[in-house]
Fold this sequence. Notes:
With 195 residues, this protein is α/β, with parallel strands linked by helices. The protein contains five helices and nine strands, in the order ββαββαβββββααα.
Amino acid sequence: xxxxxxxxxxxxxDAVTFLSSTDVARDFVEDMVTRASRRLAVPCRLHVTPWDAxxxxxxxxxxxxxxxxxxxxxxxxxxxxxWMGVTAHDIGLALFTFVFGRARxxxxxxxxxxxxxxxxxxxxxxxxxxxxxxxVAEIMHELGHVAGLVHCRDMNCVMFFATNxxxxxxxxxxxxxxCAAQLxxxxxxxxxxxx
Length: 195
């Protein structure tokens, strides 16, 4: 989900640095970053740190304020690098009961929550592979916003707005032709690969 509060001009994205919460299993996040790096043409790095340890909660809810959490990483970015925060916290906004991720158009940071991506959240057996695929889809969606894209009407495009995990599964990790044409040419890997 995007917020258009940031500037409205494109900037160069030369690398993506993933900030993983220390309460996300290291082998899981390494696999997820590897999968995401197959979709991207820019270098990907991983830092495991308790970056979200002091996350601000939404009033009256057992959720973290997505905008406040995004702001904690957005303020520490470096030119050309997008910081992608990966958290186990359930995140939401005052007007939304939950969101899977958050980014600002033309911003320098993005956020993806793993809290609602697992089948166990819906009474089904755990499936780490499915969680990783969904996480990569959300990573690509939020990076699309950072690159300037808005939500797309094509249900098969990763920029289609997902209100549930089923939509994440259907839309996959690829950009439609119209959205792909608006992306910086050096950001996404040229050939689609399996996430």
